[in-house]
Write a structure and sequence with these properties.
The complex is a heterodimer of chains A (127) and B (325). Chain A is mainly alpha-helical. Helix content of chain A is 68%, strand content 6%. Classes of the chains: A mainly alpha (127), B alpha+beta (325).
Chain lengths: 127, 325
């Protein structure tokens, strides 16, 4: 087994000298992202709450994007996906992404339909 | 990356076994298969959470108002403790990678130290989650449930703060006691009665003009709708039950599904963390016994490491979709 590590993150803009250093670097980055998330969650800036994009608040979009960023660095650096063969990486990453996107699409559309039935249909549920 | 040029020797072993087209050992590959399938299970849970939430998008509880406690400290601290838990889990993920890294370099004592720290981090997280559950089940303000199964909460009109049932309910002497198994017919019993009866809460509400009702409906500012005193007086006639805390049937925070998903998703994740800690402990003792030193490599640490990081990864999503969004 070979244990070569790719030591650059952010598409090569940040290079580390050793694997240990890279781990601490990624930890700092993840901590910053989490702090930003919590700070936004507590302050809830007016401008991000008032504006929406495709029916969802900008704040929630930011949360979801930052979550995916965090997930990327956990999988790539902590789970060593960066050092695996690209065929293995693709098999692991794209399978769930494809299935989960489909599931989310189906379920959320259906839920929105039911919401409208509850709202506009002749159903009394909030009493 | 390993070479893509195939040599004669490799070609021979294609049918004889020993070929690794993905460059990963059998055990590691199986761990990845398991992780992918488990990721799909969790995605199913979170997507169904999204389904229920979109269904009741206008009445869903606001997480900031539910998870406001920090152990040993009184006051209103939304999110702080969950953020701390997230940080603990990320931290234990880091010690895990450091253990794997030390394992690659065959430094046994370092692996022992880092595995130990990882186990401690996992234990703190599971403990925190148990505390979080206990607080959630106990509840803090108490609420009324209407005939339609919706929740009515109470707010003090002058300060705008939430009012607990104990703040305004009146004491009325009644004969009503908890039904025990040994009395009455058919050996039926019931769960313990709430601290206040519906009558006491209603009476206290009528005599206390400072108390307003807050409904589940979220208004345009993203806050729960506060009724005026007149509307509140009309609304309290719909009440049928006193609800304190949370269980699988009803909860004082709002939509019933909210507590169900909370118990189910964080419970399933907590179970994963717990089993992760158990597996880590087993590996920890194996390292101390020198099993991997004799085997010549620490791949086992890497494999449990993958599982441990996966648990962290899932928490990142649970944290976002349950507490933040």
């Amino acid at each position: 087994m070979s244990h070569e590590h790719k030591l650059a993150i952010f598409r090569g803009t940040l290079k580390f000298k050793s694997n240990t250093q890279k781990i601490w670097g990624v930890l700092i980055f993840l901590s910053i992202v989490t702090t930003v998330e919590v700070a936004l969650g507590i302050t809830k800036p007016e401008i991000l709450v008032a504006n929406t994009f495709i029916g969802m608040k900008l704040l929630n979009w930011i949360f979801i994007i930052l979550t995916l960023v965090k997930a990327y660095y956990i999988a790539w650096d902590f789970m060593h996906l960066r050092d695996e063969k690209s065929s293995l990486r693709r098999a692991i990453v794209w399978t769930p992404i494809f299935l989960v996107s489909y599931l989310i699409f189906i379920l959320l559309f259906e839920a929105d339909y039911i919401y409208n039935v509850f709202k506009d249909g002749y159903i009394q549920w909030n009493f | 990356m390993d070479s893509t040029i195939s040599t004669g020797a490799e070609e021979e072993s294609v049918w004889g076994g020993g070929n690794q087209p993905l460059g990963a050992s059998y055990g590691k590959l199986m761990m990845w298969f398991f992780i992918v399938s488990d990721a799909l299970t969790f995605s199913g849970f979170l997507a169904s959470y999204g389904f229920s939430r979109f269904k009741f998008i206008e009445t869903w509880p606001i997480a900031d108002e539910v998870f406001t406690h920090v152990p040993f400290i009184h006051g209103n601290f939304p999110m702080y403790y969950v953020a701390f838990m997230t940080f603990i889990l990320i931290m234990s993920s880091v010690t895990m990678v450091l253990a794997v890294d030390a394992g690659h370099r065959m430094m046994k004592n370092r692996v022992i130290l880092y595995m130990f720290l990882t186990i401690i981090g996992g234990a703190i997280f599971v403990g925190s989650q148990a505390w979080e559950w206990a607080t959630f089940i106990k509840g803090d303000y108490g609420a009324l449930e209407t005939k339609g199964g919706r929740i009515l909460q109470f707010v003090k009109a002058d300060t705008g703060e939430r009012a607990a049932l104990a703040d305004f309910a009146e004491q009325i002497e009644t004969e009503r006691v908890t039904q025990q198994k040994n009395v009455g017919i058919w050996y039926s019993d019931e769960t313990s009665l709430p601290s206040y009866s519906l009558e006491e809460v209603t009476q206290g509400f009528l005599t206390n003009p400072n108390i307003l009702i807050r409904t589940e409906t979220i208004n345009e500012e993203g806050e729960k709708t506060l009724l005026t005193r007149e509307e509140s007086l009309a609304k309290i006639k719909d009440a049928s039950l006193v609800v304190e805390g949370a269980n699988l049937v009803r909860n004082e925070y709002g939509s019933r599904l909210f507590a169900d998903f909370f118990f189910f998703i964080t419970g399933f994740h907590g179970f994963h963390v717990f089993s992760g800690v158990v597996i880590n402990v087993i590996i920890f003792f194996n390292i101390i016994l020198g099993t991997y030193e004799r085997r010549g490599h620490y791949e086992m640490v890497e494999k449990v490491g993958l599982y441990w990081h996966f648990v962290d990864l899932v928490w990142v999503f649970v944290f976002t979709f349950f507490y933040l969004v």
